[in-house]
Amino acid sequence: MLKKGIVVLLALLVASLVLAGEFNVAAGKTYTLSPEPNPNYADPGSKLTDGSFNFSWGDMVGWENPAANPTIVVDLGDIYEEVSYVALKVMYSAPSAVNMPEYFIVSISEDGELYEDLGMGITYAEAPVANDTIATLYWASEEFVGYGRYVKIEIVPGGDAWTMIAEIVVGDGALPEELDAVVGGLLDLTYAATVSVGKPYMLIPLPSDAYPDTDSVKVTDGFARYSWADMIGFDNPAINPTIIIDLLEPKSIGRVSAHFMRSFASAVNLPKSLLIGVSDDGMEFKTVGLAVATNPYPPQNEFINEIHWSPSEPVLARYVKIEIRPRGAAWTMLAEATVWAME
Ligand SMILES: [Ca+2]
Ligand SMILES: [Ca+2]
């Protein structure tokens, strides 16, 4: 009996190890880094996928005040069809001036050239993260999973000084229960209502002269029709077009979206995603999420498509910032931006 029990236990242990191994498809894989990490915390090319993430300097790849956001591109070696989880194991040590990243943006590509935004890692599994520990910053999704071979992770540092990364995890398939991962977009919006219609907003930069917003009303007039006159347009803008909506009073925000035209015949494409920020004073904004989900899904051509985001918990704020991340050199045509709040 005892022997049989041990055999069963061993079998379960092996099975769970195999499953864990199968879920993390980044283990042992190659990757590239840009910019180069600091020479004191350099990388022979394996530190981030070697399975080791101890609170130890030897395990760290580090950047000190990098000129650009540290970016990691992992080559999974093969196409994976259900990339559902991406995590960074990061060091937090206030005495050593090592900050936790504010967030990362993850995108995925089949060929290493054209990337689709997947989502934002903005949740720490260990929150609140204790000082002098290794923390897990992750993105997880059950609905909008990724398809591809190359996974790009752009890290936004959480302040000046150091960013230290020990490991990358890329999960493919159903989220293992032990991760206890929180996925966004599950908020019950039954009692949510639109609060942006008719509200004032600001645009940076101004839209193209060909599709202007002369009376500053088109973005929140409540209409998202497939009509050129209803839309404002940005032609390959130098900076990401950004809308700041003033809800006039703090609202418990449950959903943010924007409607865009897609018309390949007219060289109009959907943005890759929308970076969502909120503020109480209209000056200092906090990034809260990335809108990548589309309605309809998949998006349709010669059609107005909605790109939307929902937090896992309502966010209280008066100002909502929507930064549009355009795709390539095409036109971006915006019909409407909408904010929902819980009643
Ligand atoms: Ca490692
Ligand atoms: Ca409109």
Summarize this entry quickly.
The protein is mainly β. It has one helix and 20 strands. It has two domains: 25-179, Jelly Rolls (Sandwich); 192-342, Jelly Rolls (Sandwich).
Describe the structure.
By secondary structure, this protein is mainly beta. Helix content is 6%, strand content 46%. The protein has 2 domains: 25-179, Sandwich (Jelly Rolls); 192-342, Jelly Rolls. It contains 1 helix and 20 strands. Strands 1, 2, 3, 4, 5, 6, 7, 8, 9 and 10 form a 10-stranded mixed β-sheet that branches. The protein starts with a helix and ends with a strand. The model has no long low-confidence stretch (mean pLDDT 93). The protein binds calcium ion (2 copies). Residues 47-48, 50, 52-53, 59, 166-167 line the site of one calcium ion.
Number of structural domains: 2
Series of secondary-structure elements, N-terminal to C-terminal: HEEEEEEEEEEEEEEEEEEEE
Write down the CATH class of the largest domain: Mainly Beta
Number of helices: 1
Q: How helical, in percent, are the residues? A: under 10%
Radius of gyration: 22 Å
Stretches where pLDDT is under 50 for at least 5 consecutive residues are none
CATH topology of the largest domain: Jelly Rolls
Alpha carbon gap, first and last residue: 60 Å
Provide the residue-averaged pLDDT: 93
Silhouette:
globular
What attributes characterize this protein structure?
Jelly Rolls, mainly beta, 343 residues, binds calcium ion, 10-stranded antiparallel β-sheet, 1 helix
